[in-house]
Description:
- It is globular and about 35 Å long.
- It starts with a strand and ends with a strand.
- It has strands spanning 3-10, 14-22, 25-31, 41-50, 58-59, 66-80, 84-91, 94-102, 109-118.
- The protein is mainly beta.
- It contains no helices and nine strands.
Amino acid sequence: MPRFVLLEHRRGGVHWDFMLEVGEALRTWAIDAPIVAGEDLPARSLPDHRAAYLEYEGPVSGDRGMVRRVDRGWYEPVAWTPERVKVRVEGDQLIGFVELRASGAIAGSWLFRLIGKVD
């Protein structure tokens, strides 16, 4: 099963990087608010990241802050189109479904929703 990771990224503030393993890379979105089940949260599509972030915690090269792993586990794709990604996640804290929808307002803008629970 492909893996996911959720990182807290501190750099002039805080956001959370939700990363899905796709082949050798991690498809990544930055979520700008703490994750709460059942709420649409603003997110930004980021360039793919290296798979090393599945395990890495610490300083980010180029003086781009620090990352700390909040959760990790596996996921199963349910729907995957350019405008919508829905996966079933099974982590230590995130359990259920994650849906990401392109908001269309600004390029790279998405909405993140956890349908399930945060333990």
